[in-house]
Amino acid sequence: MAAETEASLLSEKCKKFGLLGAGLIPDPMMTLRLAEVQQNSPIPEVKEAPKPAAEAAATSAPTATGPPQALAPSTAAAASSSKAPVVKGPESVEVNGHTITREKLLEVVAELCKTQGIIQQHVCTMARKISKEAKKTKKKVKMSFMEAYKKVEEQDWPKDPLEQYGLTESSLQQVLSQYEQDEEVMEGAQKLLHPEAKGDAARVAGITVTKVVDIHKFMVTEMNNIVREFRAISGEERRKLKSKACEYAAELLVSVAVEQNLGVRCEDVEQAVIKWEEQLSQSAEFAQFTEQLANMMQHLIAATNPLPMDKEQFLKLLQTLGGCTQKAKTFTKSLLEEYRSKTSTIDQCYQKFTDFLEESNKSAGEAEGFPEVGQVEMLVLFDEFGSDPEVKKLWEESGCGFPGGTGPMGGAGGGVAGALPGPAGAAAGGMGRGLPALGNGGMGATNSEEQKVVVSKNKKPLKAAEVVDMQEYLVDEMRRICEALAASAKPGKPMSGEVAMQMVQAFAIGAVEKKFNITPNDFVAASMTHAAAAQRSERLMRASERQHEAMMQLARACGEGGLDAE
């Protein structure tokens, strides 16, 4: 697949958060990936005209500190970029029967940036006011979601510019995809992806890398409480709420909680993420927390939208997915045996795995009558219809309860590893730079009620030490498979990073299932029960670190052309 661009990252951000209000509960990994995109963007080669003799002499004259100096790489890049010819996209594009000119697009993007900054500032100001009042009374504010929602609705904040221009987030994404080479348009997209941080440098100086990770861990806990409260509202009442107001209300609640409990302002958190971007990009735990935040915000927004299908359609979809899951389990088990018995090499297994996924996706695409839904929409549908015993039974059989469970491999191990709490879930969820976060970064580890994991009847309870042993074995298996895949990567024969990681997780969970005679459901349930023990295990932590290094090795293979980053 094509490499990431500012346009593709913006499209992903729209799907996760919407365009406005994404500055306070952001996906900081998006910031890091944007920096990587900009770093990897090729600089157009510009042939300069010969300089006049006097100018050339002045340029090469010795400096006071030594002989003639070449431009530093960054300076040379800036000079080259500044002299590059301006690349423009088409004068206009058609989308949904409407013509959008380039000038209008620039106007829309500029207005979105302006509105995003205003709303971010309003939410920060409101959070500061609430926190100050609480400090005076020496009592922490305990605000419900609906109270925060009403406060937001009372504000005279700017309206969504897209409505004024007759656009939707989806149509804007389509338009931007036509301007990926347009420097001026992409500059605006960068500002939407990465709003200007407004933190205070003096305050940020006291925020370490460890504290940034701890803050995001705290934010996950708070956001989980918000989502739990939100889900308690009836589906009929939720769908009467405005998605943007829900988004702002959640941001307000988290911002107030962070300031009251940790003494850190929300705008300083984003500034600290930028400051420590390189170190944070290496943290599997940080990747896990940010992915959890993104997924929970997605759930919040999706739950206000009309249901994508009725109960009858949902039942049919679950039946279809259940069949796919069983087929995937059988296939993975057979393929894993081929690899372990050395009947097939790792690259041959990868090709067979790819072929199977393509065939499964093709079959799913040919199924009629099912609107396109993702993991978040599936969870919303289960919230609505999950009290029905038949729905619950089919849900369990389909494997949809695991993060990433809606895909062909979701219930066959592709999402199970990322569902584990603690170091193992972080290792599975945080794939490192250049690789997607399969398993949704362990989203279900925090939102255990969303997984609906069912434990086998009459199953003997496992001890904490047994569960830690299983998790360590899982992590080591993932490391070994990552290393084997990275070693098999060949220039000119790219592999999909996403498919590779699905195979890594599916193989690893299959190995655990065989060695310990335990089902994936029971493994995840036992891991949740003994999550505290896993968090304290230094042995498991070290194994997770080794596994993360192996994933980084796979990521480097991706960057060198052996793998194709999704």
Count of strand segments? 4
Unreliable segments (pLDDT under 50, ≥5 consecutive)? Answer: 13-82, 403-408, 410-455, 560-566
The whole-angstrom Rg is 25 Å
Structural class: mainly alpha
Per the principal axes of the C-alpha atoms, what is the gross shape? globular
Helix content: 55-70%
Amino- and carboxy-terminal Cα gap: 6 Å
Strand ordering within the main sheet? 1-2
Query: Which percent band covers the strand fraction?
Result: under 5%
Instruction: Report the total helices.
Output: 28
Task: Determine the mean pLDDT.
Answer: 74
Largest β sheet strand count, sense and barrel closure = 2 strands, antiparallel
Question: Layout of helices and strands, plus pairs?
Answer:
Layout: H1 6-17, H2 28-40, H3 53-60, H4 73-82, E1 92-95, E2 98-101, H5 102-137, H6 145-154, H7 161-164, H8 169-176, H9 183-193, H10 201-204, H11 209-231, H12 235-238, H13 243-262, H14 266-275, H15 277-280, H16 284-302, H17 311-340, H18 346-366, H19 375-385, H20 389-398, H21 422-429, H22 443-446, H23 448-451, H24 464-488, E3 495-496, H25 497-516, H26 520-529, H27 531-536, H28 538-559, E4 563-564
Parallel strand pairs: 3-4
Antiparallel strand pairs: 1-2
Helix pairs in contact: 1-8, 1-9, 5-9, 5-13, 6-13, 11-13, 11-16, 13-16, 16-19, 16-21, 17-18, 17-20, 21-28, 24-25, 24-26, 24-28
